[in-house]
């Protein structure tokens, strides 16, 4: 059984990301399975650190992007919205070029919080970064910022 409240409109999400950090870093959402959200991010001049490999901060931004979009589509948006509360990451392998792929899966989907695990792998499906993201589930605001 799928976890999504009413589906995950990948095209709409990707369009919303064009003019923000997601678009600037080349992040794209690719696939929503029954219990996961998958995306990719390039390893290029936008996402590398001065040493020439993927910047750990870019990996964290990618992980939070996937978990945030996933959490937003598990809840009823008329009643709730989700915000990042805590994130941690372990960087286990360097990547100098190509793409990294991330998959966000829920560990816990509660009434007031979600915990998501995000695994980021290289093109050979080797683990690059593993992250845990805690999302707070809040009452929907009356207005948007």
From TrEMBL:
Annotated transmembrane regions: none
Cite the InterPro entries for this sequence: HotDog_dom_sf (IPR029069), PAAI_dom (IPR003736), Thioestr_dom (IPR006683)
Q: Which Pfam families match?
A: 4HBT
Q: Give the superkingdom in one word.
A: Bacteria
CDD domains listed in its UniProt record: PaaI_thioesterase
Q: Which residues form the Thioesterase domain?
A: 52-129
Q: What is this protein called?
A: Hotdog fold thioesterase
PANTHER family recorded: 1,4-DIHYDROXY-2-NAPHTHOYL-COA THIOESTERASE 1
Taxonomic lineage is: Bacteria, Pseudomonadati, Pseudomonadota, Betaproteobacteria, Burkholderiales
Q: Which family is annotated?
A: Belongs to the thioesterase PaaI family.
Q: Which UniProt keywords apply?
A: Hydrolase
